[in-house]
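Researcher: Structure prediction, please.
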Amino acid sequence: MTARPIVFLCLDMTRESLFDNLYSFMSKKPTAIDFWYAVNNTKVVQSPRKHLETFGNTIINYYLVSELMDDVGKVRVREGRMQMMRPQIITPAAYASMTLEGFGEQAEKYLEWLKENEDSVRVLRYGYTLKQESFNELIVSDSTEVVLERVKSNVQAKNDPFSAIVLGVDEPWDVCLVRLFWLVIQKSAPENIRELHERHLFELQDGIPLGVREEVERAFQAAMHDANLIKPLGKLLQEHGVFEHYQDRFFNLVRKG
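Model: Predicted structure follows.
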């Protein structure tokens, strides 16, 4: 009987600089109180009907409804796009280095456990960016319930399988999207993992999953044709924890570049 795989999901969240410039209040890191207030007062009313693409990026069109905190009877509707990045296979070693830095002896024991169980460990990294284009917001005078029903009707008419409706707080509203991000990942991961398994992309060779090897090979081929991509290639190797394995080939490319 085949052992059931042990799955870890790694989250990577970034924002486009243009978006930060337009909405500078989002660049302020919320306090712990603000963060948990937003988390506990966020409800995903409608999540995307389809799971995230396994072998490409996915655009989610979100609608965030929130009551203005300082203006009774006013509701803000934000509409925008989240680009969910293609889920990436990462090595257990790379996962450990990202999550356990600075944790001392306990981290070392955990890393040893990951290495001992690497045949059954599956690690996927998910990330998203908020896209500036198509972002807009509207403030209306009505109750939250009425506005929410109106948004639901409009979304239903569009019949978009990647649309999502969120009821949340007005500030920090981006935390509400983090909640949506996590929910979508939880729903998508089983199907993503199944499709990756079908292509044998978790199979190990010298402790490196085939999916990682293919990604690294694509990066090497690109860097061979464009020297500006050598530095990003080195960063990729370090992020995956496989620089030592590829270092001879990498430095040969540096010398030729």
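Model: The longest strand covers residues 121-141.
Researcher: Thanks, that helps.
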